[in-house]
Each structure stands twice: as C-alpha cells, then as structure tokens.
C-alpha cells in the first residue's frame, strides 16, 4: 500500500509518501518560517496565500522523489482539522482533486492524532526536502518590529558546540521504532501528552479515533508560552520555542524563581486536576524582565552580559514550564491507570516534544512510574506530511478510506463532501476530569 499525506493546518505545507511497512519514500516541507515574522503570530490570510502558492509544488515534488505517480497510490490522507480553516481548505481541496482525478480513496486525518501516531512510525525517515516559500507571501509587507529587549546576540558557546551536545542527548533518547513497537502497531492503551502550538493536553489513547481527554490547558498552550516568552526576551525568529531552548542552554535554570502554574490549587484534594495553565507564567516573566532588566540596565551591559542575563531568564522559565508538564503527567498516569490498568507507556508528541528538556524530564516521570516514555524522531515533532500519511495508512487499514464523491442523481452532479473541521476535539473529556472541574 502507498499513501500520500497532505498537511496544511497551520504554517507548514507538508507532503509525504509512506509505504504499508512504514517506509517513508519521500517527504517535502514548505515551511512559512519568516512569512509571519514581526506579526506576533501566524496570520491566517498570509498563511493561506503561502499554502496556495506551495501546495502543488510540495505534492508534485513528494511524488517525484518517491518515484510514485498518483495512480500508484492507494489513498490520499489529508488533515481536515483542527486548525485554521483557510489553511485546511487548501490541503483538502488538493487532496479531493487528486482523489477525484485518479479514483483514489480519501482518508480524513485529525491533526493531533497524527502528531501522536507518528511516534509509532517503524522506520527512520530519509532526509526531507525543504522548499522555499514562494509567491505573493515573500513580498508581504511586515509590521514594525515588536517591542522587546535587544535580541540576545548568539555567543560562540551557544551555537555549534551546543548543537552537537543537544544531538548527543537526543540520540540517547529512544524512539518507538527502536523500542516498543518495531512493527509500528501502536501498543494501546497509552497516555499521550500533546504539547504543541495550539494544544496542551493529556489524553488516554485506547485506539485509533478512541481518545479521552484527562486534562487540557485553561489558557495558553506551552508552545504559545514558549513563543510569547521568546518575544519578551527579544528573540525575533518565528517560531520562538526552539530559539528559547537554545538560549536557555547558556543559562542557570535556578537563577530566578518564578511561580509554579496553578500552585494555589496544586494539592487541592478534590479539585486536583490534570489541567494546565501557562499565561500566568508568561506574565511573571514579563514582570521579571521589567524589574530585573529594565531598559536602563540593559543599556549598561555588554553583549555577553546581556546574553547571560536573558539566558538565565529563559532557563528559569523553561524549568518551571516543564515542571508543570511533569507534575500533571505524573498525576495523569495515576488517573489513566485507574481506567486502564495495563497502560503501556507515555507518548510525548507535538512540536514542543522536540525540546530536549521536555523529553528528559518526561522520561524521568514515566520511569518513576515504571513506564517507558516515547517520542517521535525530533524532526517529526513539528508539522509534517509523514505523520498524516502514516496515520492515514492505519485508518485505511481499519476501512476508514472513503470516496470523496457523492453522486446526486437528481441534479446529475458530483458534489464534494469533505468539510474542514477547524474545531475538532480529539475525543470527549473523561468523566473524571469534568467532575474535578466543577
Ligand atoms: P497544533 O499542533 O496544536 O495545531 P501547531 O501545528 O502550530 O499547533 P506544532 O507545529 O505542533 O504546532 O508545534 C509548533 C510549536 O512547537 C511552536 O509553538 C514552537 O515554538 C514549538 N517548538 C518547536 N520546537 C521547540 C523546542 N525545541 N522547544 C520549545 N518549543 C518548541
Ligand atoms: Fe501541529
């Protein structure tokens, strides 16, 4: 079997072809990094234009490097939600057009389930082909730069040597293909911590399409908190999360004490929950910068001193944010075990699972509970076409492929029947979590 996966839910246009045994034949990504810089977030109209400009090239190139023609495919899988509707529509339109033209099955994919399932890809993917974003977006006018302390200058210590160190650490962390599931069959039930730009959830995963939410964020996701805090620290690149992680490697994570999120309700008996909150932590960083690093003080520091001060704040923020994830995940393991005593492992997935501090801390939490923690390969944590193709493959095996055509006999027209679902919960909230919320 061969499945083409198409992803366009946010700011990455991705396409990949995956074979039934999990081999990735080819993967292409047109990232919009740069397009939204200076806007303070992803601008839906700009993102839509960039997807529209990139979608044909991305899909054509993925098929070309895979050595596959559309008629060889068994199905096209496409993200139909959750995400930005303007963006989702671009991918869905392309998938439907391909399926119609080549008589292929179409598989609707849930973006967050794809993030989780790519953990079980049984093979290492080959290098990805990156396409530059093109078309109108490149020339889009930018707003004035947002207010922030001077960008932390990269010091020699934060670049090559540390990237090597990060790589070495990440290679020591197992992925599913090397441990629990060499054949790619997910060992349901497991607990999934989904940490990304738009979501922050603890989910009990009992099967494909069978997930129940134990906890989610009351405000921002951790990805959003990383991105906003990165901006406060003057990091200009978008997304800011990976930049903040790099900066934090140069800092002392115990230099500043920041309030633990939801600490007032932390050990609160009946009100104990697996929910998250990150907006207070972000505000605390803003206050810390205002008091500890006001503009007059920054002006007195040389580049190296400035870098060190910002790195201490980044590291302290990251420590508290990751401890919050860890504490809630430890609690969720207990909850999940009360429902499914044979819990197999803890999956950590989504863009923020690329963060090495997140990986190592969650590995510790899982191991304290006698469980393994598994993550997707680093490169597949953020949005990509492989996760859609691989999840689509598994849905196809369950008979969930469909013809995207509806024959309306009376009107004698063929109507499209694939709708995008910008809001699409991955599953119901578990009863226990809703009880705790009241
Ligand atoms: P969602 O998946 O919820 O719809 P999204 O698709 O925009 O949102 P992802 O692509 O899964 O999000 O993840 C992007 C997020 O991950 C961004 O917020 C980014 O800053 C964050 N991120 C990526 N790498 C790292 C890292 N190394 N450390 C911290 N954050 C990171
Ligand atoms: Fe995502």
Automatic annotation (TrEMBL):
Top EC class, one word: transferase
Assigned EC number: 2.3.1.234
Compartments it resides in: Mitochondrion
Any one GO biological process: tRNA threonylcarbamoyladenosine modification
Reaction catalysis annotation: L-threonylcarbamoyladenylate + adenosine(37) in tRNA = N(6)-L-threonylcarbamoyladenosine(37) in tRNA + AMP + H(+)
Gcp-like domain mapped to chain residues: 23-129, 167-390
Subunit and partners: Homodimer.
Protein family according to the UniProt entry: Belongs to the KAE1 / TsaD family.
Protein name in UniProt: N(6)-L-threonylcarbamoyladenine synthase
UniProt organism field: Prymnesium parvum
Complete-protein stretch covered: 280 to 717 of 776
């Amino acid at each position: 079997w061969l499945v083409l996966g198409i992803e366009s839910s946010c700011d990455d246009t991705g396409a990949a072809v995956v074979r039934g045994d999990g081999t990735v034949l080819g993967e292409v990504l047109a990232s919009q990094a740069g397009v939204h810089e200076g806007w303070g977030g992803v601008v839906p109209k700009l993102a839509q234009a960039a997807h529209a400009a990139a979608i044909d090239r991305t899909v054509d190139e993925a098929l070309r490097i895979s050595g596959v023609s559309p008629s060889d495919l068994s199905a096209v899988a496409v993200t139909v939600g959750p995400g930005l509707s303007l963006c989702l529509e671009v991918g869905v339109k392309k998938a439907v057009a391909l399926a119609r033209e080549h008589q292929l099955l179409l598989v609707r994919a849930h973006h967050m389930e794809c993030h989780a399932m790519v953990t079980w890809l049984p093979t290492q993917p080959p290098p990805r082909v990156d396409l530059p974003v093109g078309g109108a977006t490149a020339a889009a006018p930018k707003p004035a730069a947002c207010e922030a302390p001077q960008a932390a200058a990269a010091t020699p210590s934060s670049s090559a040597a540390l990237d090597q160190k990060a790589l070495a650490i990440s290679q020591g962390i197992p992925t599913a293909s090397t441990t629990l599931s060499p054949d790619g069959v997910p060992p349901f039930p497991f607990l999934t911590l989904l940490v990304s730009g738009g979501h922050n959830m603890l989910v009990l995963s009992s099967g494909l399409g069978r997930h129940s939410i134990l906890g989610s964020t009351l405000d921002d996701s951790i990805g959003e908190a990383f991105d906003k805090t990165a901006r406060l620290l003057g990091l200009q690149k978008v997304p800011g999360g990976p930049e903040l992680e790099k900066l934090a490697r140069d800092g002392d994570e115990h230099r500043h004490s920041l309030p633990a999120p939801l600490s007032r309700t932390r050990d609160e008996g009946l009100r104990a929950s697996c929910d998250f909150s990150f907006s207070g932590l972000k505000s605390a960083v803003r206050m810390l910068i205002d008091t500890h690093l006001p503009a007059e003080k920054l002006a007195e520091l040389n580049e190296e001193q400035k870098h060190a001060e910002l790195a201490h704040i980044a590291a302290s923020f990251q420590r508290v944010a990751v401890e919050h994830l860890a504490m809630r995940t430890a609690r969720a393991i207990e909850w999940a075990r009360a429902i499914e005593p044979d819990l197999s492992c803890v999956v950590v997935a989504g863009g923020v699972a690329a963060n090495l501090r997140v990986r190592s801390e969650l590995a510790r939490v899982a191991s304290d509970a006698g469980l393994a923690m598994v993550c997707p390969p680093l490169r597949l944590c953020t949005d990509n076409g492989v996760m859609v193709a691989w999840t689509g493959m598994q849905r196809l095996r369950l008979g969930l492929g469909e013809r995207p055509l509806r024959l309306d006999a009376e009107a004698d027209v063929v109507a499209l029947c694939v709708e995008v679902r910008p809001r699409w919960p991955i599953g119901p909230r578990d009863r226990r979590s809703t009880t705790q919320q009241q």
